[in-house]
Prior knowledge:
The complex is a heterodimer. Chain A is an all-alpha fold. Chain A has nine helices and no strands. Chain A starts with a helix and ends with a helix. Chain B has a single domain (34-53, 77-246), classed as P-loop containing nucleotide triphosphate hydrolases (Rossmann fold, 3-Layer(aba) Sandwich). Helix content of chain B is 36%, strand content 24%. Chain B has a six-stranded mixed β-sheet, sandwiched between helices. Chain B has a four-stranded antiparallel β-sheet with strand order 2-1-4-5, covered by helices on one side. The longest helix of chain B has 17 residues, at 177-193. Classes of the chains: A mainly alpha, B alpha/beta. At the A-B interface, α4 and α5 of A face α2 and α3 of B. The structure holds adenosine-5'-triphosphate (ATP) and magnesium ion. Residues 18, 23, 41, 43-49, 203 of chain B line the site of adenosine-5'-triphosphate.
Amino acid sequence: MNILQAIGRVTLSAGAAIWDVFALFFRTLYWLFYAPLRGKFIGRHYIFSQMVFAGVQSLLIVFFVALFIGMVLAMQGAYQLSQLGAVRFVAALISVSMCREIGPVLIALVVAGRVGSAIAAELGTMKVTEQIEALETMAMNPIRYLVVPRFLALIVMLPALTIMGDLIGMLGGYIVGVYNLGISPGLYIKTNFDFLVLKDVMTGLLKSFVFGMIIAMIGCYMGLNTKGGAEGVGRSTTMSVVVSFILIILADAILTGLFYFASV
Amino acid sequence: MEEKREVVIRIENLEKQFGGRKVLEGISLDVYKSETLVIVGGSGCGKSTLLRHIIGQLKPDAGKVYLFGKDITKANEDEMDSIKKRFGMLFQSAALFDSLTVEENIALPMREHTKLDDHIIKIMVKMKLNQVGLRGFGHLNTSQLSGGMKKRVGLARAIALDPEIIFYDEPSAGLDPVVTAVVDKLILDLSSALSITSVVVTHDMNSVFRIADRIVMLYKGKILQIGTKEEIKNSKNEYIQQFINGTIEGPMQFFAPDEGYLEELTK
Ligand SMILES: Nc1ncnc2c1ncn2[C@@H]1O[C@H](COP(=O)(O)OP(=O)(O)OP(=O)(O)O)[C@@H](O)[C@H]1O
Ligand SMILES: [Mg+2]
């Protein structure tokens, strides 16, 4: 009985939270698309500063992670492919797997850790120090001024970061492939791009677009629903990373399944 | 009571429950133009909750709140926004935006809600800062301010759009007596010089008797008495006497009665 009750309670509260996230999502869409038609625009500087934070300031860590994962993939791939005598296909392996899977997911996880948690911490602090309420009493809707700029920044900048990360990952593969495995530069580059089709890139970018929405919505939701002082801010920050990670992997599985079955 | 004064805030039979517990029970109250009304009561008696209902942050379970003659419990977002531009609020923790400087905090409502030129806004920000005695502090970050300075910047931001009403939630909480007196003087100056209506929530009896035109005594979600300073000072109500004298003995009980304590410990 107690276990049933506990399960019931957890299901109910999880259901309510999911409902709340969707409500936040639809209100974000309202302020993004409908409100501007009624003359309520979102100040360009709010969006711009968020883009700088989410995108430009993430470049270094994204480059670092992508470069090394590309190099690791090259070494791991070479180990397997050399047994088949097909080492030069390392280039194709890296370019396709970076664009389709590893680039979007890895970079989304990095950005969830860096940007999503920062959003939760910032909005959470604003919530517990009455700043959100202050915005509201100044007739400034927090969705419009806080959520929408972060949402826009992430859905634009995450795919952009992903494109760059894909390229840097290929560069990492190139470094190992050419300088360590002894593949000639021309052949490496040719193999790299010959096997890559537009669909690989597009499905990857579609994924990172969805991941960007997830990171923004979860970060904002956790932040705006923070309760209980500094401790609560810490809890929201951690939760935003954990929940984003889970949802990114889940969405990745669903989207990959969709693309897979749609193309069969 | 003077008759026929213009009512700017009218509260009728306001009721609010949180999780089945009644926090506000049938509050009715009129606030007149350019008076300073102080809401006093013990911790947890519902002062902040009442204030949140007046500024439209909470919706009541029953009852009505009229601001400038408009029922805000029925107002939509656009109507509410235009009402919000006519009042200012000083929060208990000042609630300054810590991603912005002092200047930017005060300029924000002007930037968003007026079409004024940037250099005009800069001049107006300087005037607001001067009004709260903080000339030359505009470039500071909010983290560089003391508690009293934060309150004053919060006040400068609250008066940025020249509001008709200002709400203060515990303006003297956490301030030393001198800074409290400074903030009280600012409240008085604003209401006399600009004939702004002020609604102040506090439990600092010294500042109550300095600033109040009328006092509302709140206890457990109900109004005990509304009156002038003299009426409250000479009140026969035992709760009010206990509160303004700050004594432990009286009708407000803070300790559970002794009987049954031993059983509770050993149970
Ligand atoms: N959002 C809420 N949810 C549940 N209970 C609440 C909520 N807000 C206030 N309360 C409860 O309502 C009661 C009144 O709270 P309120 O903040 O109005 O008190 P207060 O008079 O302002 O006290 P203080 O002087 O300590 O600020 C408290 O017991 C509080 O626990
Ligand atoms: Mg309070």
